[in-house]
């Protein structure tokens, strides 16, 4: 149905209203050192926004019932006030951002600044480049091609539509069982490992026929070869389950009651959906980093740099507080706080490094010798940079003509033609990156007063130990003047380039961060039947978060054997890291895997069992009962499930390390 013209006019009027803020936000992002993809902005109504959310941020996707389910859920959230969508942006070059036409101007500006930061993250984080490599990124076109291909199969009278839907269901159920730490174009391990045959070694040992026949008979050699082949396979589990099924999988033919080769359309659909899984993987891997990055720069632009007008700021502040104040594990809040911590600790080290070079100041007397109020005042931005208005531009012009903090070309134009640049509305236009870094140096912000003073003696000692530059300052003022105000932002960009959520939390979630931000863990307790605070220990908080981020927070599954017990059965292993599988869901997944393997499938995992007497005793003593961990193998043959005790050797093979978060690729910047 074509929408009435009056709705088209509403969208066009909103687009016209936003043209100037869009251009200004892109210019400000560039001034702040961001390097985003070009962004195309589209104004849509709330129903179109719900459709885009259902499609993962794109206008065309392959036909499947899941999109309708997501759309219905999002529509109900919108109708009943359970959450409003303000924007959606996709990882593409150029990126496409969709703004809801009913948003207030304050919300639209917040969205635009948020989007510019997302586009910068998409372009510069190496985990995203692992999908596109050196090629051009055109995700919208790729997804549209996939949609057209699968639609052709749906329209093909020779292919049963229900078969397509069941097949897509099976593949999408496994979309997170890829090796997200390898590039999409990486060569897949398609061959079974075959150890050296002992017969070849015996032939070169010059043994007599009698000895060889009695000690190394053919039956024994066959059994040894089978055992060694199985063990070699188990030693090299393959993480890309979808890729493995694409290379070796078959399908179960219900009429024939056996496995048959995949048809060409099935191979094609599996490969297309696997490619889409790889495209969306970086967004899942960096959700907290990415949202925190966008929230940080949005807050700086909208609030500190006054991109929100005076009549818009309260609306913006209210909505921002709701986003950051959402309960539970909030990626916007955690991510923003971690980025601020990266900035603050870097700036603190930069200032401490300079102060330790002052004659008479050492790591031992640092806290006694330094007047932190004086340092705080010295770090404050120059008044001409801090207070920029149309009536103070002459103060900026009075600075030395080679001052790198001033955008002299823009300032000259503003002074000669005041109407060309609105300095009251956009003061940042007359500053450079260096000027903005001084204007927003984190350690002088009210909320971070005292952060420098809290530096630990151990950190000061470490700084002194590796201080190879013998440059010295005669006074504290001289040292402060040498502080690089861009240090924090530079470090943030370095971190943005190479980390994902797991390595980000592992590297920067320190005891100081946990304590100052009051983070804690909570768990379901068997003894009381409810959720309670489990620990405030920083190590426990970090471990909990790392477990939550590893493999998108999903169980890690790998292929251990494709010929288990020499019967052509598939053996999968759950990398057990102390978190038990939901066994009902695991059985549902095994049914889907069976559709793509065509033969019986097995899953190794570890189950926690509790003795009722131990639970009762623990309840009385207000503590948690200790579970017994039992290795199990679940087998599905296409009609029924069986459960077996897991061989101790196999149980040992699926045990992950204490925390399974070793997610760095072999070459970080490949």
Q: Would you kindly provide a written description of the structure presented here, covering whatever features stand out?
A:
By secondary structure, this protein is of the alpha+beta class. Among the domains are: 5-142 and 284-324, no CATH class; 194-235, no CATH class; 331-498, no CATH class; 509-550, no CATH class. Helix content is 51%, strand content 10%. The chain is built from 30 helices and twelve strands. The relative contact order is 0.09. Mean pLDDT is 86; it is low at 1-7, 228-232 and 658-670. Residues 555-606 form the SpoVR-like C-terminal domain. This is Stage V sporulation protein R. Pfam families: SpoVR (PF04293), SpoVR_C (PF24755). It comes from Halobellus clavatus.
Which strand order does the major sheet show?
A: 8-9-10-11-12
Q: Beta fraction of the residues?
A: 5-15%
Sheet with the most strands?
5 strands, mixed
Rg from alpha-carbon coordinates: 30 Å
**C-alpha end-to-end distance:** 48 Å
Percentage of residues assigned to helices? 40-55%
Overall pLDDT? 86
Task: Please report the number of helical segments.
Answer: 30
Concise overview:
Residues 555-606 form the SpoVR-like C-terminal domain. The protein has 670 residues and is of the alpha+beta class.
Write the layout of secondary structure elements.
Layout: H1 5-31, E1 39-44, H2 46-54, H3 65-79, E2 87-89, E3 95-100, H4 105-124, H5 126-132, H6 139-155, H7 161-173, H8 198-203, H9 209-215, H10 218-234, H11 241-248, E4 251-253, E5 258-260, H12 264-285, H13 287-304, H14 313-324, H15 331-355, H16 366-369, H17 372-379, H18 383-386, H19 393-397, H20 408-416, H21 433-439, H22 457-465, H23 476-481, H24 487-498, H25 501-508, H26 511-517, E6 521-525, E7 530-535, H27 538-549, E8 557-564, E9 569-574, H28 583-597, E10 601-609, H29 612-620, E11 628-636, E12 641-645, H30 648-654
Parallel strand pairs: 1-3, 9-10
Antiparallel strand pairs: 2-3, 4-5, 6-7, 8-9, 10-11, 11-12
Helix pairs in contact: 1-4, 2-3, 4-13, 5-12, 6-12, 7-12, 7-28, 13-15, 15-24, 25-27
């Amino acid at each position: 149905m074509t929408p009435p013209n009056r709705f088209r006019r509403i969208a066009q009027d909103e687009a016209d209203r936003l043209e100037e803020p869009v251009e200004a936000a892109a210019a400000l992002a560039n001034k702040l050192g961001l390097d985003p993809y070009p962004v195309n902005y589209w104004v849509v109504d709330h129903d179109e926004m719900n459709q885009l959310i259902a499609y993962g941020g794109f206008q065309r996707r392959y036909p499947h019932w899941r999109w309708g389910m997501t759309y219905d859920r999002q529509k109900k959230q919108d109708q009943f006030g359970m959450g409003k969508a303000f924007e959606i942006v996709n990882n593409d070059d150029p990126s496409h951002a969709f703004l809801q036409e009913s948003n207030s101007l304050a919300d639209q500006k917040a969205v635009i600044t948020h989007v510019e930061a997302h586009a910068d993250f998409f372009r510069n984080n190496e985990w995203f480049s692992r999908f596109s490599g050196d090629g051009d990124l055109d995700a919208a076109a790729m997804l549209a091609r996939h949609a057209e291909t699968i639609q052709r199969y749906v329209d093909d009278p020779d292919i049963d539509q229900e078969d397509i839907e069941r097949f897509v269901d099976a593949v999408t159920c496994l979309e997170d069982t890829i090796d997200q730490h390898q590039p999409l174009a990486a060569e897949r391990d398609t061959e079974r490992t075959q150890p050296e045959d002992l017969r070849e070694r015996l032939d070169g040992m010059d043994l007599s026929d009698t000895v060889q026949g009695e000690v190394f008979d053919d039956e024994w050699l066959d059994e040894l070869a089978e055992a060694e082949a199985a063990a070699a396979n188990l030693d090299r589990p393959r993480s890309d389950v979808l890729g493995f099924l694409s290379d070796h999988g078959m399908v179960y033919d219900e009429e024939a009651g056996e496995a048959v080769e995949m048809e060409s359309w099935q191979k094609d659909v599996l490969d297309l959906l696997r490619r889409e899984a790889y495209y969306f993987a970086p967004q899942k891997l960096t959700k907290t980093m990415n949202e925190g990055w966008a929230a940080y720069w949005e807050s700086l632009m909208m609030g500190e740099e006054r991109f929100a007008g005076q009549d818009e700021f309260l609306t913006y502040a209210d909505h921002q507080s709701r986003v950051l104040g959402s309960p539970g594990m909030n990626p916007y809040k955690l991510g923003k706080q971690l980025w601020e911590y990266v900035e603050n600790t870097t700036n603190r080290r930069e200032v401490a490094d300079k102060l330790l070079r002052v004659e008479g100041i050492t790591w031992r007397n640092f806290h006694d010798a330094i007047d932190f109020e004086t340092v705080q005042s010295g770090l404050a931005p120059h008044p001409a940079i801090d207070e920029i208005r149309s009536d103070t531009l002459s103060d900026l012009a009075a600075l030395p003509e080679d001052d790198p903090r001033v955008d002299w070309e823009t300032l000259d134009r503003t002074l000669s033609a005041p109407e060309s640049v609105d300095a009251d509305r956009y003061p940042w236009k007359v500053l450079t990156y260096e000027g903005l870094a001084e204007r927003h140096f984190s350690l002088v912000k009210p909320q971070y007063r005292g952060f420098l003073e809290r530096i630990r003696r151990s950190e000061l000692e470490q700084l002194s130990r590796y201080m190879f530059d013998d440059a010295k300052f005669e006074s504290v003022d001289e040292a402060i003047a040498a502080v690089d105000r861009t240090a924090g932002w530079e470090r943030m960009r370095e971190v943005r380039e190479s980390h994902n959520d797991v390595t980000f939390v592992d590297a920067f979630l320190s005891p100081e961060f946990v304590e100052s931000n009051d983070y804690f863990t909570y768990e379901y307790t068997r003894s009381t039947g409810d959720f309670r605070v489990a620990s405030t220990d920083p190590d426990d908080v970090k471990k909990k978060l790392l477990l939550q981020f590893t493999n998108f927070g999903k169980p890690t599954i790998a292929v251990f054997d494709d010929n288990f017990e020499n019967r052509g059965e598939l053996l999968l292993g759950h990398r057990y890291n102390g978190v038990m599988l939901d066994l009902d869901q695991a059985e549902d997944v095994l049914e889907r895997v069976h559709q793509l393997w065509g033969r019986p499938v097995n899953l190794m995992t570890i189950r926690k069992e509790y003795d009722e007497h131990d639970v009762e005793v623990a309840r009385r003593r207000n503590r948690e009962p200790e579970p017994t961990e039992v290795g199990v193998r679940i087998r599905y043959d296409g009609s029924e499930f069986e459960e077996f005790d897991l061989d101790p050797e196999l149980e040992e093979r699926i045990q992950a390390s204490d925390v399974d978060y070793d997610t760095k690729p072999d070459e970080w910047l490949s």
